[in-house]
Design a protein that fits this description.
Blueprint: H1 13-16, H2 18-45, H3 48-64, H4 75-94, H5 115-134, H6 137-148, H7 153-160, H8 164-182
Helix pairs in contact: 2-3, 2-4, 2-6, 3-4, 4-7, 5-8, 6-7, 6-8, 7-8
Length: 195
């Protein structure tokens, strides 16, 4: 047991090694973030498998670089930024966009109620998922962070390292595009839409 300088009382673990306590707390907090990270990753990738791979890569990177995490800052924002950067790196490496979309069989666990309502729910969910999947990547990331993860515009701007006004304009364009799809209007393909 370690004692303080005047030998009057023992030092706690936090006093002995504050970085160990912070590291343990960050790891515990990271575990509680996993459902949100999976949801964000799935929204970015459009695939459950690719999303899980992205979460795993982001967690590995975060744990190997815990010394870069600043105590007192938001762990979720740090993780979203890591995931966003990894996703951009992966996309650049592939040079081809994977087909994003949820298959109706993936929705089996989400459906409840009678058969007609379940069918309408599946169709609506598939339509929304495809509409979000067709958005340009920069608009999709903003939409997921603000509308799905509940981050403020400012927090999303910090995560994506873009100005607040850019967050607002990308979010507005993303909402309009998804709304048009839901209203049955034709929309501009993602390849022709600017971020």
């Amino acid at each position: 047991m370690l004692w303080n300088k005047d030998k009057s009382c023992p030092l706690s673990l936090q006093d002995q090694c504050p970085e160990i306590v912070v590291t343990q707390q960050v790891r515990a907090d990271l575990v509680s973030l996993l459902p949100r990270l999976r949801r964000f990753a799935y929204g970015l990738t459009g695939s459950l498998d690719d999303g899980d791979d992205l979460v795993q890569s982001a967690c590995e990177r975060a744990l190997s670089r815990l010394d870069q995490f600043q105590a007192g800052t938001r762990l979720d924002s740090w993780m979203y930024r890591i995931m966003q950067n990894l996703w951009i790196d992966q996309r650049r490496a592939r040079q081809a966009r994977p087909e994003a979309g949820m298959e109706p069989v993936d929705l089996e666990a989400l459906a409840v109620g009678d058969a007609e309502r379940e069918l309408h729910s599946r169709l609506a969910m598939t339509t929304v998922q495809r509409a979000v999947g067709e958005l340009p990547e920069d608009q999709r990331a903003v939409l997921l962070l603000v509308c799905v993860e509940g981050l403020s515009y400012k927090a999303a701007a910090d995560v994506l390292d873009i100005p607040l006004g850019t967050v607002m304009s990308r979010l507005a364009r993303a909402r309009l595009a998804v709304g048009r799809v839901l209203d049955g209007e034709k929309h501009t393909p993602a390849s022709q839409t600017k971020g």
